[in-house]
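ok, trying the design again with the full structure, not the truncated one.
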């Protein structure tokens, strides 16, 4: 289930659907943003800054990108979609769920291997590294490798480095990257693969190492206004994501802000 910033998503959808004009984003309501779970800390700060600067409110619902775009496809009245990879934004564009002219690649990130904070595991991430041995009979926490962007990136990296076959039967697949992060933070798995920004936000884990950037597709976060949004503040919030205040919030969490 999505983690929400101010209200649960069911309440957000109910309020939007009850507004004059129905399911499409009615004018005058808060901007409803569907955003990848890994954006939570940074985007909460951005939304708070936008409210201070403009007096307007953005309600952000967080979940795995695949889950969010499917909700939009089913009629959820989101104004903005922020994905953790290009694939799910491409899907949204093919299904005519976003406005292509508003689409931009906003952020970059890195993929890291983590362990519980008290763990003493040491391993060098390189071609041929023995990740299976480092698990010591435990499981590797990772987002769903067929759908969740962080899981897809992680599987690609392990395949490229020759470690996938050794761990593919020892995977604890999670519904989002944040869910994978919690499995490690709680000590339920000895290792996990998440984004660098997730790892630095969670005091219960430590980073063992970063995956080589050429071991997986570039980690890019695209953003776009949804096709059915008619909320005039959606475009304003999209522009605000490029503001100095937003850049500062993203960079504090370890994201790279990509040139427009």
């Amino acid at each position: 289930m999505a983690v929400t910033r101010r209200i649960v998503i069911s309440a957000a959808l109910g309020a939007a659907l009850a507004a004059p004009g129905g399911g499409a984003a009615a004018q005058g309501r808060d901007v409803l943003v569907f955003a990848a779970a890994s954006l939570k800390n940074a985007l909460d700060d951005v939304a708070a800054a936008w409210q201070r600067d403009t007096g307007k409110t953005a309600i952000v619902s967080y979940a795995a990108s695949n889950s969010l775009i499917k909700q939009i496809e089913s009629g959820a009245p989101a104004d903005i979609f922020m994905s953790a990879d290009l694939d799910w934004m491409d899907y949204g564009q093919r299904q005519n769920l976003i406005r292509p002219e508003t689409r931009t690649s906003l952020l970059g990130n890195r993929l890291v291997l983590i362990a519980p904070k008290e763990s003493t595991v040491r391993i060098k991430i390189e071609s041929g590294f023995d990740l299976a041995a480092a698990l010591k009979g435990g499981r590797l926490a990772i987002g769903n490798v067929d759908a969740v962007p962080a899981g897809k990136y992680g599987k690609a990296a392990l395949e490229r480095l020759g470690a996938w076959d050794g761990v593919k039967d020892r995977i604890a697949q999670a519904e989002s990257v944040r869910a994978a992060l919690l499995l490690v933070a709680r000590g339920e798995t000895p290792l996990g693969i998440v984004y660098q920004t997730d790892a630095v936000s969670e005091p219960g884990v430590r980073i063992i190492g970063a995956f080589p950037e050429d071991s997986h597709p570039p980690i890019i976060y695209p953003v776009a206004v949804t096709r059915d949004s008619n909320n005039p503040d959606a475009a304003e919030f999209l522009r605000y994501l490029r503001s100095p205040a937003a850049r500062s919030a993203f960079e504090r969490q370890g994201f790279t802000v990509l040139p427009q």
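Keeping the full-length input from now on. The first helix runs from residue 9 to 18.
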